[in-house]
Amino acid sequence: MASKETADSDTYESFLNHVRKYSHVSDAAGVLSWDQQVMMPDEGTPARSKQTSALSTLQHELLTDDDLAAYLDELDGAVSDRQQAVVREVKRDHERATRVPEELVEQLSETASNAMPVWEEAKADSDFSKFEDELSELVELRREYAAEIDPDRDPYEVLVEDYEPYLDIETIEKILGELKSELPALIEQVSNSDVELADPFDGEYDESAQEELVREALDELGYNWSRGRLDTAPHPFSTGTQFDARVTTRFTPDDPMDALGSTIHEFGHARYTLGLPDDEYGTPLGDSRDMTVHESQSRFWENHIGRTLPFWRQFGATVEEHLGVEASPQEFYEAANEVYEDNLIRVQADELTYHMHIVLRFEIERDLIRGDLEVSEVPQVWNEKMEEYLGVVPDSDANGCLQDIHWTYGNFGYFPTYSLGSLLAAQIDETVREEFDDLDATIEDGEFDPIADWLESEVHQHGCRYTTPELIEGATGEALSAQPFLDYATDKYSDLYDL
Questions:
Q1: Which of 11, 59, 168, 351 could tie 25 with a disulfide, CB 3.0–4.6 Å?
Q2: Domain covering 169-496 assigned CATH 1.10.2020.10 in the classification
Q3: Could you tell me where in the chain the CATH 1.10.1370.30 domains are found?
Q4: 266 in active site
Q5: What's the predicted TM-score (pTM) here?
């Protein structure tokens, strides 16, 4: 008879093989989603919706399989700490999945896929009413999904846990409440300042020249082209695995800083993905922790590297080479950090007003899922909150409630992680500056590998071994807090705007 140690080892390996199967199915679905947004012909949606639905169903079947349940029961408490982390993550996903009927999973996937071209048309026509029915269906399906998982809990809290499983809703609301309370005063001070920041960009810039610029930025930051690629998409995003991490960007003729910032942002996501351990691919130890941590990596590179004066001291000449823009590092730095009073678009927002965009979306989607807001009321409430929080009213649905793609996928509960990740990025920046003798000199010299190596060691290589609070405290020595960001933002913008 085999020993208990051997039996446990054999069981664990069989368990991992099962886990890898549904992980690989999920990755395949991710590639199809990337293709739909980047390369698929316009009329490919009917077939693609069936394909993604079939993969979602297959993944659900593998995740709810009786064999997996038996593995989890046998392995609970019988493996090492490292293996127990895998069991913990899979068990959580398994328990949630077993509560959701397969037909609902299939319906959610197919509805989201079919909603994509409807949203695109509605946005192009700036007409929310064209997307209203699809959004209503997605809201209702997500309410059903949350009720199946736990009918006795706040449905929005249940949905948030798909993106941030280890920070409770009370913590999230408290942190966002601090931003909502503290930032308006600083934003108002900036608005009242007489300082006008430099803007050396004037006219329009060819897409080909902008693409050359952002590709060189990726080169300098250390993007691994043998495991990645750059494409364009209406809404920039990153997706993939540690073997294939793809980024997308978009080009605006009169605003090359938009493409550069978006590309550096998505590089941060991809660098995290590429930093996950190769030998754990297909298991939770080879997967990213959650969207809060993922967003912290993109925001760290975008804001705490790409929006710094030392970065522009070494990258300004590259902009001049590709776009013909002659400006000092200080002028480029100011252009990268200007606070626009009338900014309507979240992805183009500065570091201060960005969080008010997130608070707005958080409050609207929370009220939609809780049944406190009707879908038909979204445009009006959106505009009212924009005026209240940012002092500007959208001039169209396209620049208002139709600008984001997230609800098209049924991704309710995703938005809070953007602000949480930005706060964690500031907390990580504070820690990195303590670790490096002179981080600004490192950035100015274009020595980005040591920074990436530190992030890989402290964050990426752990995969999902630790919960979010454990990973944050392990990397920074403190629990997640809004204070490092508030201190950083106050210091930075007080200096820029002579407050």
A1: 59
A2: no
A3: 169-496
A4: yes
A5: 0.93
